[in-house]
Amino acid sequence: MSVNRRKVLKGAAATTALLAAPSVLRAEETIKLGSILDTSGIFDLYGKPMDKAVDMAIDEINTDGGIAGRMIEKVAYDTQSDMALYTQYGQRLARQDKVDVVHGGILSASREAIRPTLRKNKVLYFYNVQYEGGVCDRNIFCTGITPAQQAEVLVPAAMEKWGKKVYVLAADYNYGQITAKWIQHYAKQAGGEVVQVDFFPLDVADFGSTITKIQDAAPDMIMSVLVGGAHLSFYRQWAAAGMNKKIPMASTVMGAGNEHVVLTKEEGDGIMLAYSFSKELDTPANTSFLERWTKRFGATDDVHELAVATYQGVHLWAEAARKAGSVEREDVIAALEAGASFDGPTGKISIDPKTHHATFDVHLIEVKDQKMAVQKTFVQRPPVDTQTVCNLEENPKDTTQYEIDI
Amino acid sequence: MDYSAVVVMEICYAIAVLILISAGLAVIFGMMRVINLAHGEFLTLGGYAAIMSNQAGLNIYLSILVAAPLAAAIFGFLVERLIVRFLYGRLINTMLATWGLSLAMIGGFSMIFGNTTTGIATPISGFALGNYQVSGYNLFVIAIAVLVIGGVYLILKTTRAGLVARGAMQNPEMAQAFGYNTSRVYMFTFVAGSALAGLAGGVMAPLVGINPAAGAAYIAKAFITVISGGTAVISGTLASAGLFGFVSQTFTFLATPVVGEIALLVAAVILLRLLPTGITGRFLKDKV
Lengths: 406, 288
Hints:
The complex is a heterodimer.
Chain A lengths: L4 H14 L12 E7 L6 H20 L8 E7 L4 H14 L4 E4 L3 H13 L3 E4 L12 E3 L4 H16 L2 E7 L2 H16 L3 E8 L7 H10 L3 E5 L6 H9 L8 E3 L7 H4 L2 H4 L3 E4 L8 H14 L7 H20 L4 H9 L3 E4 L2 E6 L4 E12 L2 E11 L2 H4 L19
Parallel strand pairs in A: 1-2, 1-3, 3-4, 4-5, 6-7, 6-8, 8-9, 9-10
Antiparallel strand pairs in A: 10-13, 11-12, 12-13, 13-14
Helix pairs in contact in A: 2-12, 3-4, 5-6, 12-13
Chain B lengths: L1 H31 L6 H17 L4 H23 L8 H23 L13 E3 L2 E3 L1 H23 L1 H11 L1 H6 L4 H27 L7 H14 L3 H22 L2 H18 L4 H4 L6
Antiparallel strand pairs in B: 1-2
Helix pairs in contact in B: 1-5, 1-8, 1-9, 1-10, 2-3, 2-4, 2-8, 3-8, 5-6, 5-8, 6-8, 9-10, 9-11, 10-11
């Protein structure tokens, strides 16, 4: 910022009246949006499109005149899929760059690495990723989909279509275990029965014996909470045994990293999913979003749930800041709690004030020809899982991540 | 009855996989005392070669059985000529060099193919065994493993090339005195081991999908199999793959895949405590 006489005079005149609100002095400065994502390394499949989504959202907000006349500037760090770098860059964003808001973090471990630092330094934090739920902290807004939001829709729909006996396969870490609990919960509620839950470490790639065991149990359907590249083998081996024609399958995670495109048509067809985003969602908002993405990045191959959640997270924050007329943390939080919302590609998204998690549309999806065909839309689903453990209106000082036990 | 047939088939399949993924390593280690830490990446290379050539329109069986071992063999040839041949007899140095090579290969794969999992569909459909649906491709894997072991055995035992190779490994000076170029023998052995690794990668590709770091999932098991087997290439690999495949699958069926993996590792620890030089260090000493 250049200093000239006019600005100095203006500043001096304002100082007397506005000592209590020094931020106004910076009215012409840009707003700093910190972005912290793995845009290289093993998680870049998730991080790169999310980074693009941040760029696109910022440009759109700036084209619309920014926030209260101020433009947004991105301060980004690539954490290289290394959890140690999150701590380092998180501190730099808060203390050195003094950003106004931070968007980012992919794995839950990365979020937990920066959440305390950002809270301590009073920097507002948006975590825009599908995760296991349960974070209860006034300084953070979790805009991604959580297990119950999916299972609540997916489990009854799949059971109605296929039958009551469910076999659950889940990745052996907290996301898999918590999601498996919710699946059991909703299966029981719908009058069904979970015959078996098997957990697999993330590096297991051989499912031969599991496939035999599943046949021995003879369930009506499979619920898959298998995560990552090694677990992708399950879908191949399942199809190789011809089982995909015999026992149908639903999943809460397949497709988030565009797995349905990696698998062949034969392997993926018929799998039932529940997400807030699908490229095949036929609404004007989504069509226009995908057109803008294509115009800017060439193709929409890499767009996925997490990228769209990030895009909507940045816009939601901007909407709230516009309503509040400021990017001060307390003002933005108040605006979001008062119901600031954004109409994005997945529909309307707003914040549940008790949990700081998001309410949005969830779509029931079936994989067809490597595409996510939307079957049915469930409008405005609240974060019911986190709601069972978290109430920030009563306990604003809470900072726990609860392990939701049903 | 059906169930036990399926279980037996799964056990055979697990043994076949162990044989396939460790055969290349066993040939190179057993005959040349070179530990190829890039073995996992040779597998990955074979997998990529199979997937790429299939996507380019080559018949799937040719992709798996020809393109994959060929690509790994050519690469193995370059590695032997450019790196490994300067380090023969220096175990630690070869480990370090091939470890570096493995990191470089993972980086190279990420740059060329991107950091994602790619795959091809299995060419053989499943079939019914009584009440159970079984993967036909598993039988294919078992058949290939039998052919690999049989082929290596026949070459080593009945051909002149095999005799020369065994002679050169046992006593290089004597072989050289007889007029055989041991450097060339080493080269061919390394290339053969690489080709076997590539073949394994090609065969596994339709089942697991390949990503740049896919080799890491196999390298540990391949090492355990080879080290526990001892120095005899065929009987050692057969004995340890048979033992570990049986142990891990039995525990997988009785409990979970996690317990199966643990059982395999526990069996390896006990085995190496009792037989520090591997199974063939104590038994079957004179076999190949």
